[in-house]
Amino acid sequence: MTASSILSRVYQGITGNLEPPFIEALERVAINGVMPDCTIIFDLPASVGMERVRRRAVAPDAQTGEDVELDRFEKEEMDTHEKRREAFLDIAAADPKRCHVIDATGQPDAIAASVLSIVEAALSGHGKNGHGGSEAAQ
Questions:
Q1: Is pLDDT of 115 > 80?
Q2: What end-to-end distance do the CA atoms of the chain give, in Å?
Q3: Which of 4, 119, 122, 128 is the most buried (most CB within 10 A)?
Q4: Residue pLDDT, tens place only, 14-30
């Protein structure tokens, strides 16, 4: 699944009530078999994410100085956000070789180190499976 197809499954399928076969048919047409080698999902409890949103919304935008308003997704119920979180985690659990979940409650430096570790591992193994790297150049 691409990032776009994961988002479609969660937003249009799980919380948008479109049937899985319909979403899967759209995926087949949209991605035409092209799949990423690595997908990173940042996991954050809905309550923590919404608290971050609220803090951002009460402070003026750092660049423009204008008030920040919640978008339509940010205005949705906490249960909806938690349902989406669970859907992302279910998708990751179904494809653990490709999908990597990072605890996004940590410090930014620790999160960045986790991302770097995952990406470096994915890139170092990239040439070994015939999809790139030095073996592809031979």
A1: yes
A2: 29
A3: 122
A4: 666 777 788 778 777 77
- Where residue 87 falls (left for φ over 0; alpha for ψ -120 to 50; beta otherwise) is alpha
Sign for the pseudo-dihedral over CA of 111, 44, 124, 27: negative
Class of domain 37-126: alpha beta
CB 118 within 8 A of CB 57: no
Q: 73-76 long-range contacts, Cβ below 8 Å, gap at least 24?
A: 74/50
| Percent residues over pLDDT 90 in the chain | 33
- The domains of the chain are located at 1-36, 37-126
How is the chain split among helix, strand and coil, in percent rounded to 5?
A: 60, 5, 35
Where does residue 26 rank: exposed (0-12), middle (13-18), buried (19+ CB within 10 A)?
A: middle
Distance CA 16, CA 40 (A): 23
pTM for the whole thing? 0.70
Structure tokens at 93: 């659990």
CA angle 13, 16, 20 (to 5 degrees): 20
